[in-house]
Write a structure and sequence with these properties.
Elements (H helix, E strand, L loop, with lengths): L2 E4 L18 H12 L8 E4 L6 H5 L4 H13 L1 E4 L2 E3 L3 H20 L5 E4 L21 H11 L5 E5 L6 H7 L5 E8 L21 E6 L5 H19 L3 E6 L16 H19 L3 E5 L9 H12 L14 H7 L4 H16 L8
Parallel strand pairs: 1-2, 1-5, 5-10, 6-7, 6-9, 7-8, 9-10
Antiparallel strand pairs: 3-4
Helix pairs in contact: 1-9, 4-5, 7-8, 7-11, 8-9
The structure holds zinc ion (ZN).
Zinc ion binds next to loops.
Length: 359
Amino acid sequence: MTTALVFHPDFLLHEQSRDHPERRERLSYTIDQIREEGLMHHPAVKVIIPGFASMEAVSRVHHPEYLAFLEHASRTGGFIDFDTNVPPNLLSHALLAAGGAIRAADAVLDGEAENAFALVRPPGHHARPGTGAGFCYLNNMAIMVRHVQQRGLEKVMILDWDAHHGDGTQAFFYEDPSVLFTSIHQSPFYPGSGSIDETGYGPGTGYTANMPVPAGTGDESYTYLLETIIEPFAREFRPDLIAVSAGQDNHFTDPLTGLALTAAGYAGLMKGAVGLARELCEGRLVAILEGGYSVEGGLPYTNLGILAAMAGLDLRSIREPEVYREWLIRVSDPSAHTRVRENAHALRTRLAPYWACFR
Ligand SMILES: [Zn+2]
């Protein structure tokens, strides 16, 4: 099995400010770790340098007025929300990230690799048709999904496991039964959406599934949601492609969030997703990096675990350095799992009218 690792050195150019959490070290430390582990030149990993997304691909999902705003603000500087400003050359950096997502999909569709991990920034899942938000400008996931549908695939299942609800991505597909949007995220938390009651609208009713989890949630609960919600749901929906919005801010060392997932937990989640893709859609899986702000203690190990799981490598050595383990004990809340099970039961009840697997 070959996994495409889509990366461009220019993904490091984007910078809102030197102290912004969405900073270039998120990727540079990850790349160093992947290189150190020998995966940049491993026969199971094919490194691909992407190009820019075309305006045609981006215009399939974003409003022309918003793109014109980004173009103008990329010359003059601009502002979207209190933690999302528009630095010089932003549009070019965002188009390269979107191009990374598209190139990852093309690698899979053209048979260059079984699956692909687009290690891009800036991230995208809070970006909506007409605006950016929460460090995001262009929705790389939505652009990639419409691209593969343009190329002939019909049904896409999105698994967004970023610690924040993927409100932007949900907005694109809320009325669309060709895209099953599922999200596991900390709640209550930014951006405030993502309740169990948000299940889609019109023809898309029943095609959105939100799994809010409380602070302190760890590996056991994510495995539980994978096995009891994601897997049966995927088997009934039967996607042509599984797309993972891979936000690594659930890691127990993340400075912005309160979850307790480990690098091994991430690797296990991705192993499950890869297994589903093999079972249902000839292995076609595209993962796109979203958040994750633990530059030293989290991202190098979580991204390594995800890549190793995608490439079918031995996962037993995937773990953070011991020095971080006491953080895990501090952040974990053993009572969170009870709440996760209750929420999962409520979600199954909510979706039962639409899906036999939840009856
Ligand atoms: Zn996030």
